[in-house]
Amino acid sequence: MANTQAGSGGVRVKVQRFGSFLSGMVMPNIGAFIAWGIITALFIPTGWWPNEKLAELVGPTITYLLPLLIGFTGGKLIHDVRGGVVGVLATMGVIVGTDIPMFLGAMIMGPLGGYVIKQFDRLIEGKVKAGFEMLVNNFSVGIIGGLLMIGGFEVFGPIMSGLDKVMAAGVDWIVGAKLLPIASLFIEPAKILFLNNAINHGILSPLGVDQVADAGKSVLFLLEANPGPGLGLLLAYMVFAKGAAKRTAPGAAIIHFLGGIHEIYFPYVLMKPILILAMIAGGATGVFTFVLFDVGLVAPASPGSIFAILAMASRGSYVGLVAGILLSAAVTFAVASVILKSSATEEVSLEEATQNVSAMKGKQTYASALVNTESLDKIDHIIFACDAGMGSSAMGASVLRNKVNKANLPIKVTNTSISQLPKDAQFVITHQDLTDRAEAQVPNAIHRSVTNFLNAEYYDQLIEEIKAERSKIS
Q1: Neighbour count for residue 169 (Cβ, 10 Å)
Q2: H-helix or E-strand containing 296?
Q3: Is-above-0.70 flag for pTM?
Q4: Which residues are catalytic?
């Protein structure tokens, strides 16, 4: 049994890592997607202020700029700027070799270009004579990038075009058959496993952009980003829960619904895994309502805040959007309320309950006792890390930073993505479901795990530990 659990945990970590890599190509470029979405919403013939001249920006941006940005980012993730340059060249080939927006092709060719040039650099490392480094570096990128560009044009372009059309046709059929609400059966559980960014930006967003190019909007942008189910869950905790869960739920609801950081509600589901039924019910209700009203967004809503969603809404979608969000929240609240009322037999802290769930599911719990506190007196930089480096980690860093400042400790507190953790990191704080990946990234750092980024009591305890260690020295 133990081996099976460990194996499943390893698979989960690998899936998270792959999903994080996919979303890592898209998320840094979300601003560009939003810029394109705003221009599309305003100036296309069905937009708010149709403008034939400015609408000419829409086509080249979606055809060339956005895929090239993804290709560069994918290559850079593999092999820094050299990988990014070769990734762009490889992506350009697949773009010209097709007649549709090549987001899927960019997510393959970009990393492929980075990987190939990385292997070449390893092969010639230490073998280039002094004075010839620049010559070899420049021509290797040019030759390898050119070959991949030709390969993208002749081989990968037609393959990617066919695959993209098959996937788009499948999505269109699902939407037409009114079966899209079924997607909540997979999306909601996957989000709780921290695959939300991978689903939204790695899968749904590229397909959604294709739909926007044809129809001016896409409901796919709403499948993961809808804040309604999370709001309903947290409202149910506010009314029917006890202890720390009840106390922290109001703040979590504000951060989730207005700030768009969905990761904040994941621990509340993990407290009682059966609550995933409430999330699925609410998610399916929202999707059904969105499809019924034929609404959509013109670009990804990131973060998944109500403000971002309304800002990216297509013309005429506001009534259906608000209805879908409110109904999904109401259904989740109703189902979660029944579950909480029927199972709330004793008061258990959010921290304890989530750790118990983790133990039950065979995941390792990282207790503070496992951390070597003897080195806390030397800590001058604490890093919060999450999947994307812009959501829950930023929230946790803000809370601890305020406490560090009030305690007058000379400690810098920042946040980043797990994949971007510096090799010399001293002290890393992550959600416990992501600590495996953080430890693999920077094994020499001190790692602490949290189950709720609003757990002020834990941060107070950490501050006291650090002060106690420093007082021993002085």
Answers
A1: 10
A2: none
A3: no
A4: 386
